[in-house]
Write a structure and sequence with these properties.
Blueprint: H1 3-29, H2 48-74, H3 86-113, H4 115-121, H5 140-147, H6 149-156, H7 161-178, H8 201-210, H9 221-226, H10 233-261
């Protein structure tokens, strides 16, 4: 099996585990036990057919990028470094995550601020009520912009194949969680200096609702630095967590009352 086929198989399996299983559990089955964590921003619009079509086209784009990576690899242009020092392995993952976070913010920001670029990005925003199926719901041009990072990065910065694969897992997990209409982050997330840097599901769900804010992916610092957080983001997050606590208490009380009756 050639390089492109190996990697696309890896992505298919990963997509099934990280995207499709959560989609069917949280968006189709909608288990009552998790109802307290459900976020409803009143964005209802069913666009599953569009999401599937754009996702399929994105996979074709990804396969094309992988074919190009395989060609570069076969001709010695791209070389994955497997004998790097231990300290470099330790630092390589946070480095690629930070640089990808930066790359994503600015490409995403430009796609919203440029009328020309937004005509390619708007495919991702047809579904206002975000679901994990939106993870790869891109116009082919946007899909290329996202996936080409994984070819450019190891061409510039020495990287192992394992680092890039792990980065892909991180990206897909964060993307899937960000498009999930459930808020599992704790109420006091923003009370702690380190973990308050992480974005929440609320952050990206508000982006899908309002479009013109909340452009960052993993961490909130670019939105903070550039003043692009939605003005009501932090308040909305806290309100959602308060609602979650109230719903959880009501659910627990109902269960206690039912058990007492039985």
């Amino acid at each position: 099996m050639n390089f492109a086929n190996q990697q696309i198989t890896y992505v298919f399996v990963l997509y099934g585990i990280v995207v499709l299983i959560p989609f069917f559990i949280f968006c189709k089955m909608k288990p009552e036990i998790l109802s307290a964590w459900k976020v409803d921003l009143k964005n209802k619009k069913d666009t599953k057919t569009h999401e599937v079509k754009t996702t399929v086209s994105s996979f074709f784009v990804l396969y094309g990028v992988l074919l190009l990576a395989g060609l570069f690899r076969d001709n010695g242009i791209l070389t994955f470094k497997e004998n790097l020092p231990d300290w470099y392995y330790v630092l390589s993952f946070p480095l690629v995550v930070i640089l990808h976070d930066t790359y994503f913010y600015w490409t995403h920001f430009l796609m919203h601020k440029s009328k020309f670029l937004f005509q390619f990005h708007k495919d991702h925003h047809i579904g206002h009520d975000a679901t994990p199926l939106d993870v790869y719901a891109f116009h082919p041009i946007e899909a290329f912009v996202h996936f080409i990072f994984f070819l450019i990065y190891p061409l510039i910065i020495p990287s192992s194949l394992a680092t890039m694969q792990f980065m892909f897992i991180w990206m897909l997990v964060c993307n899937s969680a960000g498009h999930l209409s459930y808020e599992f982050y704790p109420k006091y997330l923003y009370d702690f200096p380190i973990i308050k840097q992480f974005n929440t599901a609320t952050h990206h769900l508000m982006h899908h609702k309002f479009y013109n804010s909340n452009f960052s992916l993993y961490y909130n610092w670019w939105d903070r630095w550039m003043g692009t957080n939605h003005k009501d983001y932090f308040e909305t997050y806290q309100n959602i967590k308060k609602e979650t606590e109230i719903k959880a208490r009501i659910k627990d009380k109902m269960e206690i009352d039912l058990s007492a009756i039985n």
